[in-house]
Specification:
The complex is a heterotrimer of chains A (280), B (319) and C (338).
Chain A (H helix, E strand, L loop, with lengths): L2 H12 L2 H18 L35 H37 L1 H16 L2 H12 L3 H27 L3 H8 L4 H13 L1 H23 L10 H7 L9 H28 L7
Helix pairs in contact in A: 2-3, 2-11, 3-4, 3-6, 3-8, 3-9, 3-11, 4-6, 5-6, 6-8, 6-9, 7-8, 9-10, 9-11, 10-11
Chain B lengths: L1 H30 L4 H6 L5 H10 L6 H13 L13 H36 L4 H13 L4 H15 L18 H35 L2 H8 L4 H39 L4 H10 L3 H29 L7
Chain C lengths: L7 E13 L5 E13 L3 E5 L6 H9 L6 E10 L2 E2 L5 H7 L4 E4 L13 H13 L3 H14 L16 H13 L5 E5 L7 H18 L2 E6 L2 H7 L2 E6 L2 E7 H6 L4 H9 L38 H5 L5 E4 L2 E3 L20
The chains are: A mainly alpha (280), B mainly alpha (319), C alpha/beta (338).
Amino acid sequence: MSIRLKGRFFRELKRQKMSMIGFSVVCLFFLIAASLQFLPIPDPFALSLLPFHPPSTEHYMGTDNLGRDIFSRVLWGTRASLMVGILSAGLSAVIGIIVGGIAGYYGGWVDDLLSRIIDVFLVMPIFFLLILIVSLFGSHIYFVILAIGMVTWPRNARIMRAQTLTLKKRAYVTAAIGSGASNLRVLFLHVVPNGVSPVIAHTVILIGQAVLVEAGLSFLGLGDPNVISWGQLIRSGQQSFATAWWISFFPGLMLLVMVSAINFFGDGLTVVLNPRMIGR
Amino acid sequence: MERLAYLIRRVLEMFLVVLAVAILNFTLIHLAPGDVAVYMAGGEAGPEYISSIRHEYGLDLPLHIQLGKYMSRVFHGDFGHSFTRGTPVVEIIIDRLPATLLLMGSSLILGAVLGTLGGALAARYLGSKIDYLISGLCVAAYSTPVFWLGLILIYVFSVHLNWLPSSGMMSFLEEQRGIADISRHMVLPVLSLTVYFIGQNIKVARASIAEAMQDDYITTFRAVGFKERTVFLKHALRNALLPIVSMTGLQFTQLTAGAVLTETVFSWPGMGQLVFQAVLARDYPLIMGGYILMSIVVVIFTLLVDFVYVLLDPRIELK
Amino acid sequence: MAPYENHTLLEVQDLRMYYRLVSGAVLKAVDGVTFSIKRGDKLGLIGESGCGKTSLAMTLMGLLPKNAFIWGGNILYEGEEVLRFSPKQWREFRWEKVSMVFQSAMNALDPVYRVGKQLSDVYRLHCKCSQEDAMRHVESLFKLTGLPVSRIRCYPHQLSGGMKQRVIIAMSLLCNPSLIIADEPTTGLDVIIQDQIMREIVFLIDQLGLSMLLVSHDVSVVTEACNRILVMYGGKAAEYGGIADVFDHPSHPYTIGLLEAFPNIRRPIKGLAALPGTPPNLAEDLNGCRFAPRCPRKEALCESEDPPEVVLYGNHVAFCHFAQDPEMKNVKYGELNG
């Protein structure tokens, strides 16, 4: 994209109010996650003598069954969610762009094969697959990120493929090939940068979905036990929900806020990258 | 006739998909760390017992031969016996499948209907405060973790208000059972599962209806004297249905994810919970059987939706 | 209501229709237009895109968007004040008294219903008859417009452009209106089909004794099909009169420019004129003649004072300070290159 286009893009984006609010909230979470060690909050692993204590001035969100401060644990949970969300969505985007770009550009049997694989994945119940993978192979957080990325790239690939099919007929592609550039060069230096916008928009939405998926896996007990995550926190408060609702409530609320923020931002991005949309 | 050929082709494609899923799962299970035979032998079995199990179940054969044998058994309807329960996998699944179908089906339909209504409302007052409110709420709806929502609903409606039961599909006592009873048990699980899909559907319906209202034929039918409501229902909404139906087709896979979580929270006796427990217990025949059957269910639903789409849109060119 | 004399069907008097823009400005789409249509008249409404002709047509049908409003003027149909219609009266007016043939470039038909059903539904809305009777009526109209009756069960996408346009024409005739408004009915069609369809429209109008308001930007179509012409520019009328009068004695520089810009078999072969400049921005306040910036004949007077209505001969009027200037026929535009 030229510099002029980029300027207009950011101006348009700023006009999407909800989107900007969403982005700011995500940035806030990011700051929190990055500066956790320096924040004046209690140690999330510290046991206290006040288990099952409701929200109070000392413990803003109460304490859990071992007396640990929930507010602190909830803040620590932002790290896991952001990491899983952003990294797995990023991985999914990279794989999707490569596979979709190759499929669309080269066509022929390569495209047929890759499209079939994409079709299979899109009809598969992905969460089931993740449950299987994570419980069989291990639940370390990096593995969860890898698994989610490896299972969600097909939709990105499909988007990229459609874009590539349209763009490869453009004049500048013919010009680049004519001037001697190799196919791979043309694909990744010319076609992909121009067609990647809808993939970016979808990937942002995917971040939110990945956060929810990780939360679901943790809630089922399949997440990384060494990392504090919101799903895990909700799980820990499940049995005592009737009497100590705050243990599960606040982590879930955070999930709602974070994923909503990501989605609001993603929606604004989609509108700006796709000017034909009606309604906003 | 053309449509029939198209559908037959789609059925074959879907068949291949289920096959691919089966192969994928089989491969994953057997690539996983941990010895299948050890799990099957259970507890503190001795090495000889483990070897005999391995031989009996053909686990010492090469992977592709095992797969072949398994698939040929599956074609004859034999999914083997569950390790943990001993009974045939098919029986267990048939026992549990209706509950999940009930849950998923209700959520899907409810989500589609309410989503379309909400989207129509937002589209009608496009740009107004009502529109912003609805749109904002629906983003929150599909950002909500379904299991958390389930817990909250249980807390409010079951524990505090005591209006609805908090778990299971049926009451304990024989005489309380029946359709009304199941319906009461269904309310909270379906509600928590549906919220997510209502949100998604409102978003799609709103955009789709707003776009349909801009089409040229809307001007035509206003010009000929139809009332605005007729124009909206008969022409705009009818045309707007197509993307909504498309979206519904995409939601099946997400529904299965939601089903697992919802069934766990509400102890709903369905496939999702079954497969999850099977995975935890490494009950491989049950895992394979459950996955294959869930894939078949998803595939059938997807085909149905495709079929409905073809019925709705006379313009579709069938390749 | 006095019995109608002179068989005047439609009278538009000093109509002003404006759009309220999001920015707060007012766009004066139709700014004081007067004309009338007698029974049997075929009036051609001609001008560039943005001159207000489609807005005018939409105002006559009452199909204006929410941000449009009538600033002033009257529309009298058979003596009744149309602008004061209630929604119920509008629904009876539309299609039974005045109907529309939409642009061929539009997707005027709903893609998910068969064309026969669409037409019969429209008919049953107004006549309240049975399905069979309605279908019979649709069949008769199909025959009238030269469509094979077998096509009644087709979907719009299965029909060619020309056939679709014939369906639109048949639709406009469903309830026996007296006036047909045809909005660019042949634009976008294949040139040969264009001619065919236009001839058929004129034939039907004449045969059924209807009147027509033909909105177009194509002078050649209008000169062949109409007996009267109204030239619009910038939301106002530039010239108005019988086709022969206006064609032979054009008295407004814009009219001259239009006639020069279209090739005409009757005229000697020469280069096509090109009108320099662009249409005015109707949201801005404009003084004087709207056409002045592009007019080769303009003088200082034109930019300060609105041109008067100059009556030339009977029903022929022009809105120019120099309408009666005999030098008008020497107004020249630059030629199109190439």
